[in-house]
Amino acid sequence: TEQVPSTFSLEQNYPNPFNPTTDIVYSVPKQSRVKLEVFNVLGQKVATLVDEMKGAGQYAVNFGASSLSSGVYMYRLSSETQTISKKMVLMK
Predict the structure, then answer these.
(1) Which of 38, 59, 77, 79 is the most buried (most CB within 10 A)?
(2) Residue from 60, 73, 74, 65 nearest 92 by CA
(3) Whole-number Å distance between alpha carbons of 55 and 19
(4) Three-class SS of residue 36?
(5) CA distances to 10, 20, 70, 89 from 92, in Å
(6) Are 36 and 50 in contact (CB under 8 A)?
């Protein structure tokens, strides 16, 4: 039996540091439009991984960064009411 998450949450990516792919897991407690984006240290968006309506549940996204350079990146999950950001490190 699947359980519906009770909170809007964003997990730390795994593995971290990563090269060239990593998994990002997030939870949505009720149906909402969610956006999962990746930014460089200058605040420039380098990828949009999710931008759609999602039902309640837990989701995993694989992020491939083979075209990006080594460094620190921020990933941000946002809905209509909340935003959560975390940091990840790409080491080539």
Answers:
(1) 77
(2) 65
(3) 30
(4) strand
(5) 25, 7, 6, 10
(6) yes
User: How many angstroms separate the Cα of 79 from the Cα of each of 22, 30, 52, 59?
Assistant: 22, 11, 10, 14
Mean pLDDT in consecutive groups of 10 residues from the start of the chain, 92 residues: 84 97 97 97 97 96 97 97 97 92
Structural tokens at position 80: 């209509």
d(CA 2, CA 73): 32
The two tokens of residue 14 are 């795994």
Beta bridge partners of 75: 38, 86
Reduced to 3 states (helix: H, G, I; strand: E, B; else coil), residue 16 is: coil
Give the three-state DSSP class for 84: strand
State the residue for tokens 């149906």: 31
